[in-house]
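Most newcomers find our protein records easier to grasp once they have seen one. To make this concrete, we reproduce a full record directly below:

…
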Amino acid sequence: MQLLSAFAIFFIIWWTVLFTVLPFGVRSQVEAEDTILGTERGAPSNSRMKFKLLITTGIAIIIFAIFYYLTIVLGFGIDDFPQFVPDFSKQ
């Protein structure tokens, strides 16, 4: 696997994990009883983005390491998975 391909796959994994981590622990301004004038009441009171970016990076590294081990070290590929759709071309 070339470096650019590895970076692209890591970025896709990281971006997907980010969207799964973002909603964790979010409290609205109403829930936190910290409403700021001129803002939406449902806006987050403290988003903790630095923490979420660190968590996202850690999870993405673990998932990428598993992906790398399965594809490069063990040699699994897309052809190794069973075909769920019947092949009608052989009739």
Notes: The helical segments are 3-21, 49-73. Residues 82 and 88 are 16 Å apart (CA to CA).
